[in-house]
Amino acid sequence: MTKKTFLVALGVFLLATTSAAGADFNGDGRDDVAVYRPSNGLWNIRGVSRFYFGTAADTPFATDIDGNGIADPAYCRSSNGFWKVRSLTQFYFGNAALGDTRISGGGGGQHTYDYVVKAGDGADLLAALESTSHTSVFVPAGTYYVYEMIDVTTVKRIVGEALHGYTLIQLLNGQYLNITSQGCSIEGLMIQGGGDSTSGIGNFYVNNAWYVTLRDCYSLQSAGDGFEYTSGSHYVSFINCNAEQADIGFDGHGDVHTSRLIGCTAEDCTNGFESCNNLSACTSEDSTGYGFDHCDNVSSCTAKGPSSGGVAFHNCKNITACRAYAVGGSAFFACDRVSSCSVNTASSGFENCSYISSSTTYSCVTDFPGCYKIDSDSCNYP
Questions:
Q1: DSSP labels for 46-73?
Q2: Closest Cα partner for 264 from 275, 274, 249?
Q3: Residue 319: helix, strand or coil by DSSP?
């Protein structure tokens, strides 16, 4: 069998040439001009990227294997059925000796996003997020220096390629992501150094917008709060978001009963969660003031610290299956309707609380001082 015949049997795009089939490698809805050089594995995608991937023994192709509408560089090694998709996966599949043929597909170009930001270009990012014509924006991994207020008024979907990779937006004190777009969804963005020390506004600020969802977002070193939503914002969701080194990690308004926070974490903040409602599986770690302050409907949440003088759960209502440990002050103070909660090491376990049932303390200086309506049959004293 000739080399050309063997490659055709595998459904190869390139037949001993240096050109590659068209594919959309940056998600702008248009195919990009690209070449592959078998002698050294060079991929050269015009105006997009240049890298080395594969050898002369490999057959290159483009595939959208992760479904984000962007073509991923890949190759198949006919000698042993080895497949590799750059930065995503690798596996063995198929047998050339049995005549298996690789079935080729679209390779991206599905126009999943209206606009793909130029990697690392802060000005392009600002223009894209403030656009009144784009509905969806994809932000590749990289660091974006913006140093301006970012007003999201129209865009409905913003997706960062890699949170821990990173997709990082660098701001200054007094600047933040101001979200007024109704029904906006933001995923995988990190903002560092923004917020407003004067007003306390956070890096991520939901400003009188409804049905906003932030998922897998990260606020770092905010001059104000990490995440904040106003009293005019309803049905706001924070899912798996993290605030580190802020005044208040997550700052809401107690009269917004439609908000929800799931799996969020506040680290090294003055207060972890303040005036938030409907919290589940959230964690406040090493706050210096309050872990959870004036929060309602708190379930399966954890507060570690504050280590000196602060309070883990302060003035919260409807608390179930929550845990406080290593607290220098009170674990639960002035809380109402506390059920199945536990304290490990605190100045006082439950202080000035009402309606406590099935809750336990361990290694506390005092257990239930000034409390009202304790279900003594269910409360355990080690």
A1: TTTEEEE---TTEEEEEE-TTSSSS-EE
A2: 249
A3: strand
Q: Do 350 and 343 form a contact (C-beta atoms < 8 A)?
A: yes
Name the residue with tokens 């309707």: 337
DSSP reduced 3-state for 129:
helix
Report whether 251 contacts 227 (CB < 8 A). Answer: yes
Q: How far apart are CA 239 and CA 263, in angstroms?
A: 6
Residue type, 107: G
Residue 288 · residue 302 · CB < 8 Å? no
Contacts of 372 (CB under 8 A, 6+ apart): 353, 354, 355
The span from the CA of 24 to the CA of 178, in Å, is 31
| Residues paired with residue 298 on neighbouring β-strands, in sequence order | 279, 319
Size (the chain), residues: 382
In contact, 259 and 276? CB cutoff 8 Å: yes
d(CA 327, CA 213) in angstroms, rounded, equals 32
Helix (H) or strand (E) holding 214: strand 213-215
What per-residue confidence (pLDDT) applies to 269? 95
With contact defined as beta carbons under 8 Å apart, do 301 and 283 qualify? yes
Indicate the DSSP class of residue 175.
B
What is the structure's pLDDT at 24? 83
Listed residue (301, 341, 348, 306) closest to 327, CA to CA: 306
The full DSSP string for 324-361 is EEEEEEEEEES-EEEES-EEEEEEEEEES-EEEES-EE
With a CB cutoff of 8 Å and minimum separation 6, the contacts of 17 are none
Tens digits of residue pLDDT in 193-247:
999 999 999 999 999 999 999 999 999 999 999 999 999 999 999 999 999 999 9
Starting at the earlier edge strand, list the strands of the sheet with 58-63: 58-63, 72-77, 82-85, 89-92
- Please report, to the nearest 10 degrees, the dihedral formed by the alpha carbons of residues 197, 198, 203, 206 taken in order: 160
